[in-house]
Design a protein that fits this description.
It is built from twelve helices and 22 strands. The protein is of the alpha/beta class and 437 residues long. Strands 5, 15, 16, 17, 18, 19, 20, 21 and 22 form a nine-stranded mixed beta sheet that branches. Strands 6-7-8-9-10-12-13-14 form an eight-stranded parallel beta barrel, surrounded by six helices. Strands 1-2-3-4 form a four-stranded antiparallel beta sheet. The longest helix has 19 residues. Bound molecules: ligand LLP.
């Protein structure tokens, strides 16, 4: 039965306000068909809530945008590594980009029941021998090498195990990503990748190693990139290198274009389909005429807008004229505002008041940096009211900590009218288990 109710999409297709009856003001925030207030009552706060539909839609939008070329989407596990999220993404046919043995173990755990091996690329500047060994034994698709020393260790490890490793060198193209300095990686001043002239030497060395196969060229210039021209510049350099390497007889099959596509934290100005189409054009233009298999490593653009953090207002407080909403989530639950000064939209879950105020939204942790918003215009809310912090699906829970002996928040995955806990709230016992006194 179709219910008559007014709706207002906040982050389509997953998050929006719905009113109870036709003509009524849309007042209650939902994730898909599930009311968020009900989830907070049932599971407590702070609570991460994700939309399965939105994650599926985004994976498929990527696949659609790149359909003109053979490609594999390798979801970047670091953005959100909760097992149920990995399983959901794998269910849509995606592979994975990992940066540690731990992330690889998570992928292997969810892939155990899969009929085929997970398609995994392994990036990162500090892979240990033990991590390489795990990756070699599990038969990953590609190692992205970031230094001469790493190349030697991989060669030695592969030779010892008699396991062949497919390698790409992650180049540092010296291209600005025009993003926050902490998440920019493509300039020579950054620790990532290898400058192109040095990369050519590494390819020559790699080709001589008995258990290494030169297979690709990789690049990743940063995260939260909104100017797609930066991707195009980086891939133009990659394409030139691929042509030069092929001329020297290297069999370059893969180009790994990394991740980095940004999302709109202020609310979508354009549809994701349009945004991803522009991204695909920028990535594909420089690759025209090169026969290859493209690897993509998106993280944020897949899961970012698919998650919200629910938090209750504990207290209202005024210091002189300065207003504060003290909420029960803190920087240990969501670090992005404290670490990068990142903006996240905050909305009341029940829209009752049309009045607004200018206020800070802060957590209970003993740090001035423990804030979610400063001098923000928000609808007037009361103590006990529920707020939703938007676009926290990526780099939210994964950057969590136990600072101030706070347990990690629980996580819920919504799928249509169903909601299930995919990670229970961390208890005090969980936190103290490893300690002795
Ligand atoms: N591939 C590599 C090699 C990466 O280093 C990253 C992210 C990705 C792919 C995925 O990038 P994405 O599509 O998510 O932009 N904590 C920061 C973001 C750090 C990104 C690190 N590397 C934040 O909260 O903004």
């Amino acid at each position: 039965m179709k219910r008559a109710r007014e709706s207002q999409a906040l982050r389509p297709p997953a998050f929006g306000y719905h009113g109870a009856a036709s003509g009524a003001r849309a007042t209650e925030l939902y994730c898909e068909a599930v009311a968020l207030e009900g989830l907070a009552t049932r599971h407590g706060t702070p609570l991460y809530v994700y939309s399965a539909a939105m994650i599926r839609t985004r994976v498929n939008a990527f696949v659609h945008a790149f359909q003109s070329i053979p490609h594999t989407l390798c979801y970047s596990v670091k953005a959100n590594s909760t097992l149920a999220i990995l399983r959901l993404v794998a269910g849509e046919g995606a592979g994975f980009d990992v940066v540690s043995g731990g992330e690889l173990q998570r992928v292997l755990r969810v892939s155990r029941k899969a009929t085929s091996k997970p398609k995994v690329v392994y990036s990162g500047v500090g892979k240990t021998a033990a991590e390489m060994e795990l990756a070699l034994r599990s038969g990953i698709l590609l190692f992205n090498i970031e230094s001469a020393s790493e190349l030697s260790l991989l060669s030695a490890t592969a030779t010892r195990l008699k396991k062949r490793a497919a390698v790409a060198v992650r180049i540092n193209p010296d291209v600005s990503a025009k993003t926050h300095p902490y998440i920019s990686t493509g300039l020579h001043q950054h620790k990532f990748g290898v400058p192109i002239p040095e990369a050519r030497t590494l390819y020559a060395q790699a080709a001589k190693q008995p258990y290494l196969t030169v297979a690709g060229v990789s690049v990743h210039i940063g995260s939260q990139i909104t100017d797609v021209g930066s991707f195009q510049s980086a891939l133009e350099r990659v394409a030139d290198l691929v042509r030069a390497l092929r001329e020297q007889g290297h069999d370059i099959h893969y180009i790994d274009a990394g991740g980095g596509l940004g999302i709109s934290y202020e609310g979508a100005q354009e549809s994701f389909e349009k945004q991803i189409a522009a991204y695909a054009r920028a990535v594909l233009a420089p690759l025209r005429g090169l026969k290859l298999h493209l690897l993509l490593e998106p993280g944020r653009s897949i899961v970012g807008p698919a998650g919200v953090l629910l938090t209750r207002v504990l207290y209202r407080k005024t210091n002189n004229r300065k207003r504060f909403l003290i909420v029960d989530a803190a920087m240990n639950d969501l670090l992005r505002p404290s670490l990068y000064g990142a903006y996240h939209e905050i909305v009341p879950v029940s829209r009752e008041s049309r009045q607004t105020e200018i206020t800070d939204v802060v957590g209970p942790i003993c740090e001035t940096g423990d804030f979610f918003a400063r001098d923000r215009k928000l609808p007037l809310v009361s103590e006990g009211d529920l707020l939703a912090i938007l676009d926290v699906g990526a780099y939210g829970t994964v950057l969590g900590s136990n600072y101030n002996t706070r347990g990690r928040a629980a996580e819920v995955l919504v799928d249509g009218a169903k909601a299930r806990v995919i990670r229970r709230r961390e208890s005090l016992q969980d936190q103290m288990r490893m300690e002795k006194f």
